[in-house]
Design a protein that fits this description.
The complex is a heterodimer of chains A (363) and B (129).
Chain A lengths: L7 H6 L3 E5 L2 E6 L3 H10 L2 E4 L4 E6 L3 H8 L13 E7 L5 E11 L2 E6 L4 H12 L5 E4 L3 E7 L3 H6 L4 H8 L6 E4 L2 E4 L8 E7 H13 L3 E3 L1 H10 L36 H9 L5 E7 L10 E3 L6 E9 L4 E8 L6 E6 L2 E8 L4 E2 L2 E2 L4
Parallel strand pairs in A: 3-13
Antiparallel strand pairs in A: 1-2, 3-9, 4-7, 4-8, 5-6, 6-7, 9-12, 10-11, 11-12, 14-17, 14-19, 15-16, 15-18, 16-17, 18-19, 20-21
Helix pairs in contact in A: 2-8
Chain B lengths: L8 E2 L4 E5 L5 E5 L1 H7 L2 E5 L6 E2 L4 E7 L3 E5 L4 E6 L2 H4 L3 H4 L8 E5 L9 H12 L1
Antiparallel strand pairs in B: 1-2, 2-3, 3-9, 4-6, 5-8, 6-7, 8-9
The chains are: A alpha+beta (363), B alpha+beta (129).
């Protein structure tokens, strides 16, 4: 038996197929992963993401600490509630984890890291904080529910205490709000509008049920994965890990190189990767015909070294197979993928594949 | 889990076989198999006329999660394939024992190893535990 979120019983009662995910018993789907995918693109879905690790960072040197720990720069967070996506690097410039940091107020931040990497992340963060006048507090008592889809905010707002409703609906993308016991952020992992809501675990099952009653459909990790793949959002452990720099995982935009004197962990090795013009690039693949691209399949580009698919699968929105891949440097828009011994034609495309319900790729 | 059709034979690889009156054998995957795979998104079918040997790869079913080989439970010649699956692989999810059939074969040699509905049910019960 794995670890269970406060919503475990709700999932079982709703007929979820439960699978192990990073040591947690989580819902894969509640009947049809494809239907759950479409409901998020067209209406609203709710995901239990309580397995994710929430860490509060506080203290006089909280800002200085996070400026050292993260490749992105928390000094960019000038307004309360603003969120920042970043990688946390090791000394070699590889990715320890990717995370979101919310600026709660002066000397107060909230960081959300992945579930499967919780132990090593906490060890890494706690070792790093010892040099600073700052405190790190994990918040295992918080559950987290993501409501995503074009109607998600409007429907979930009906569940919120009236006191917070207006403020929550006024949130701009990538901003959050402390609302009593709740923390509501206009963030997500699907490419759709929506909120991620943190709340005390004792309130989670009731809140979840109210969301469902309001018309938000429960969705499992299966749909979460196809949605994030279509949205071109990286998955830690597949698209990047400790041996891969953010520059080779399509995450160059999350590195704050300025100011030059900000000596974040991994900066030196990362600058060497940046100077290497023949480093691998990261791009999307669209399969021209029938079949399904899968993780680790070999990508063949004429006259260049092989590439590799890091995340592959079926896009329910495009009704085609799509993938993210690490590819040899160069300018080309065609390649082939070794699909179970056959070389199938793919197009190399810019991600995302889908955003706000609409295809971003010409089929 | 629904009841197993009593007029079919089954394999340990979760395929079903139905002996037709004209001597051919219709083959598909069981309801247990489609449920374990999840929503199917692609089916790779063999060519009509292709000879397959018992235990050899006959088709591939791919779900959102993974690709899975379908092995020929008997040796024979493929006389028909369910073309509908090329555009509508979810037929297997919806009706594994009916509209979701995969191939029809004319047996040419010794039958492979199949089991009765009761024996297959016992196998499923063991898997549940």
């Amino acid at each position: 038996m794995g670890k269970r979120t406060p919503l475990y019983q709700s999932h079982v009662d709703a007929g979820a197929k439960i699978v192990d995910f990073g040591g947690w018993d989580m819902p894969l789907h509640y009947g049809s992963q494809l239907e759950e995918h479409h409901v998020v693109r067209k209406q609203a879905g709710a995901f239990d993401v309580s397995h994710m690790t929430v860490v509060d960072v506080t203290g006089k040197e909280a800002t200085a600490f996070l400026q050292k720990l993260l490749a992105n720069d928390v000094a960019r967070l000038k307004e309360e509630g603003k969120a920042l996506y970043s990688c946390m690097l090791n000394d070699e410039g590889g990715v320890v984890d990717d995370l979101i940091t919310y600026y709660l107020g002066p000397d107060r931040y909230r960081v959300v890291v992945n579930a499967a990497t919780r132990d090593k992340d906490m060890a890494w963060i706690e070792a790093a904080v010892s040099a600073f006048d700052a405190q790190v507090n994990e918040r295992p008592g918080l559950a987290m529910i993501a409501v995503q889809g074009p109607q998600a905010r409007a429907l979930a707002a009906t569940v919120l205490n009236e006191e917070w409703r207006e403020g929550a609906l006024a949130l701009k993308p990538f901003y959050g709000l402390e609302a009593g016991d709740l923390f509501i952020a206009r963030t997500g992992y699907t490419g759709e509008d929506g909120w991620e809501i943190m709340l005390p675990e004792s309130d989670a099952a009731d809140f979840w049920q109210q969301c469902v009653d309001a018309g938000i459909s429960p969705c499992g990790l299966g749909a979460r994965d196809t949605l994030r793949l279509e949205a071109g959002m990286n998955l830690y452990g597949s698209d990047m890990d400790e041996t891969i720099s953010p520059l080779e995982a399509g995450l160059g935009w999350t590195i704050a190189w300025e100011p030059e004197n900000r000596d974040f962990t991994g900066r030196g090795p990362l600058m060497e990767v940046r100077a290497n013009k023949s480093r691998q690039k990261f791009a999307g693949l669209l399969l021209e015909g029938k079949g399904v691209l899968r993780d680790h399949m070999r990508v063949v580009v004429d006259g260049l070294p092989d590439g590799e698919i890091t995340s592959g699968g079926f896009s329910p929105t495009l009704e085609r197979s799509i993938a993210m891949a690490r590819l040899p440097a160069g300018n080309y828009d065609r390649a082939q993928v070794d699909v179970r011994g056959r070389l199938l034609d793919v197009r190399v495309v810019k991600m995302p594949f889908v955003r706000n319900g609409k295809s971003q790729i010409e089929l | 889990m629904s009841e197993l059709p009593g007029d079919l034979e089954y394999t340990a690889e979760h395929e079903w076989l139905r002996k037709e009156e004209d001597g051919t054998v219709t083959i598909g995957i069981t309801d247990h198999a489609q449920s374990a795979l999840g929503d199917l998104v692609y089916v790779e079918l063999p060519e009509v006329g292709q000879e397959v040997e018992a235990g050899g790869e006959m088709a591939v079913v791919e779900s959102v999660k993974a690709a899975s080989d379908v092995y020929a439970p008997i040796s024979g010649e493929v006389v028909a394939v369910n073309e509908v699956l090329a555009d509508d692989p979810e037929k297997i999810n919806a009706d594994a024992y009916g509209d979701g059939w995969i191939v029809r074969m004319r047996p040419t040699g010794d039958d492979g190893e199949t089991m009765s509905p009761d024996d297959y049910q016992t196998l499923l019960d063991e898997l549940e535990e």
